[in-house]
Amino acid sequence: MVLLAIDSSKDFMGKLLVSDAFDSFLLQEANIITAVTHTVSGRIHPDFYTEEERISHTEEFISWSEIRPLIFESVKGKNTPLSLRLTLCLKTEAMNALMQKKNPEAANTGLRALVVNIRFENGAVNIMTGTSYDSFVLDRSAEEIWDDAFKQFLTSKDISYTVGQ
Question: Which of 10, 89, 106, 132 is at 20 to 30 A from 148, Cα to Cα?
């Protein structure tokens, strides 16, 4: 787990909410405070979709690319949101590919999700990485792999950050 302070909140929020930079992620949960509080669960309800549409929704959570326009509509306007809290997780296929590439043994440790918690408050953006397992594990190498991979991801998107203490 690593805490990252984003150097330019405005640049980051633009990349998060307007561009496809984070489209390799799924939304687990969003909490947005503007004039009212918006809470969005990213858990998909399969019964909402037709049989054909269900085929493209193989994940438990909705893709960021699909929900991003709704989140953007919730925060756009002349006033900055009081708070924006997002929990995103890497798509399963990307998670498995990352683990297989970096440490095949870590791929078989019951890893459930690679997560980022994004917090925008008081004009600042902070991100905390995290991992979720199906059960208790002693080997925490997946956490280190994820921390390094996410920092590389931010660098590849030209998002500058400072590692927190």
Answer: 10
> How far, in Å, CA of 136 to CA of 124, rounded?
33
What's the domain range around 141? Answer: 3-163
Q: Could you tell me what percentage of the chain is helix, strand and coil, using 3-state DSSP and rounding each to the nearest 5?
A: 35, 35, 30
Structural domain total, the chain: 1
Q: pLDDT value at position 38?
A: 92
Strands (E), the chain: 3-6, 25-33, 37-41, 62-63, 83-90, 111-121, 124-133, 161-163
